[in-house]
Amino acid sequence: MSTSTIAAQAQVDTATVMGGLYGDGIIGMKGAFDRDWVRELGEDIEVLFQDALKRPGGAVGRGPKRYYVEIHPEGIRGFLDLVTHPWVTGVCESVLGPGYKIVEIGFDVPQPGAMHQPWHRDFPSPDETLIGRHLDSLAFNMTTVDVTEDMGPFEIALGTQWDHPEGFEHGMFPPKSLYPRYEARAQLKMPKMGDISARSALTIHRGTPNRSRKSRPALVLGVDAPAARNADRHDLQFTMPYYKALPEEVRRHLTCRVVEELEPIAQAHTIEGLVMGEA
Question: Which alpha helices (DSSP H) does 105-202 contain, by range?
Fold first, then answer.
């Protein structure tokens, strides 16, 4: 058993993790990182965001005044801290197994003026979930600011990761006739700097209107079970010196390309139904 596995098991109770992610579809840990670490993350994300806005396809629209940017791990100072955190590794191993794979890192930025998104899941449910009733992927989220109710908090309809996608447009967008169901199960999430969450991206959710004067950036880390195929939508890259410097315990969990020079990411995971947003 690896040192990281031992540390993770010391902090993560598998039954609690499984109960939360198979039940509500989302769990969290408060104060996982200190606020100074998160401030550095926020600084790095702001630099990457401004750069992405200048490049065609660098920032993908997720609705008016709302963007998603897939990034190179080398662009943030805390990547290694994030992927070796005992809670993160413990949750991954509990739900996805010891062979889990990191397939994506990026960030969302709902800016002032962002509107309600339609209720959705991030991609169609695979047979592994619809038929086998297993979760084969997780999304970790970390805010870089203290979220308040006027900043457009993330809203999630608890327990809906198992909903059959009958009538869902593109397998992702439920008909409006189901909205009362989601609103009855809805929970706004208002994390503070240092908090981290893990969720099934299949749990129905949406961004809410940002009526404040502040952006609400949030880091996203995507992780798959060994047989899942979400890596096909992404392009995780590392330069050889950076990759070689990573611990072997981290490298074995990466689905990535090792390149001589980092290449611009052509984001394949666009979600057309979010481009317009809702009033």
Answer: 127-130, 179-185
Q: For residue 222, what are the β-bridge partners? A: 104, 139
pLDDT by residue (tens digit) across 238-263? 999 999 999 999 999 999 999 999 99
Report strand pairing: 257-259 vs 237-239: parallel
The beta strand positions in 36-180, using DSSP E, are 60-61, 66-70, 101-110, 137-143, 154-157
Helix (H), strand (E) counts: the chain: 9, 12
Buried b vs exposed e over 208-240: b needs ≥16 C-beta within 10 Å? bbbebebbbbbbbbbbbbeebebbebbbbbbee
Query: Homologous superfamily of 33-145+152-224+235-261 in CATH?
Result: q2cbj1_9rhob like domain (2.60.120.620)
Cα of first residue to Cα of last residue in the chain, in angstroms, is 52
Q: What count of other Cβ atoms lies within 10 Å of the Cβ of residue 64?
A: 16
Instruction: Provide the pLDDT for residue 8.
Output: 45
Q: Which residue has the tokens 């109960």?
A: 19
Q: Is the pLDDT of residue 5 over 70?
A: no
Question: How far does Cα 235 stand from its chain's mean position?
Answer: 15
pTM exceeds 0.85, yes or no:
yes
Please give the Cα distance from 187 to 185 (Å, whole number).
7
Please check whether residue 229 is in contact with residue 262, taking contact to mean a CB–CB distance below 8 angstroms: no
Give percent above pLDDT 90 in the chain.
85
Q: Are 230 and 104 within 8 A, CB to CB?
A: yes
Exposed/middle/buried for 87, CB within 10 Å: 0-12, 13-18, 19+? buried
Torsion of CA 67, 73, 77, 82, to 10 degrees: 90
The DSSP symbol for 84 reads T
Compute the 3-state secondary structure of the chain and give helix, strand, coil in percent, each to the nearest 5: 35, 20, 45
